[in-house]
Design a protein that fits this description.
about 170 residues; alpha/beta; eight-stranded mixed sheet; 8 strands
């Protein structure tokens, strides 16, 4: 009975080690740094031109940026100068990482490559957009030196017609 348990445990350990070796041999891992990773989670997709080619392994803070480690199947080629963008395909779907541009020839991204902040992009968040618009409106809005902007028609005075003139012009 103990012999069967030992063989079973060794078999499970061998299967786990074999699976990890197979995964390592058939995928490329990349580390990318993003300024933020809002709504991006481990297990989310990595895509090339909208096709799922891998997934996100880990997301950890690294100072003032986020370190994202992901893998993709090595049967897909990615250019050495590729960029990684976080995409939000719809309002309800989880986010993905898109690798671009598609491979057309030349050197490929190596296993273990690192993409710095200069090669990653994040989407504009609604709050950031709203704050930018508010800041713009505040900068362009009324100031103590110019409290109100008048249009040409509202600031000009209309000519007045005297009652005597008005009656003489209608009598003609």
């Amino acid at each position: 009975m103990i012999l069967i348990a030992v063989v079973l445990i060794l078999g499970i350990i061998a299967a786990v080690i074999g699976w990890n070796l197979y995964k390592k041999a058939t995928t490329n891992s990349v580390t990318a740094y993003f300024t933020q990773t809002l709504a991006l989670y481990e297990g989310d997709d990595v895509q090339i031109m909208g096709v799922r080619v891998g997934s996100i392994d880990s997301i950890v803070p690294d100072g003032d940026k986020m370190k994202v480690t992901f893998h993709y199947d090595d049967k897909y080629k990615v250019p050495a100068d590729a960029t990684a963008s976080i995409l939000n395909p719809s309002l309800v779907a989880s986010r993905t990482i898109q690798l671009a541009p598609p491979y057309t020839g030349g050197p490929v991204l190596e296993d273990g490559a690192v993409l710095g902040l200069d090669r990653t992009q994040v989407p504009v968040e609604y709050d950031d957009l709203r704050n930018s618009i508010n800041r713009l409106l505040t900068d362009l809005g009324p100031t103590p030196n110019n409290p109100r902007v008048r249009s040409a028609t509202s600031s000009s005075r209309r000519p007045t017609v005297s009652p005597a003139r008005a009656s003489s012009s209608t009598a003609r």
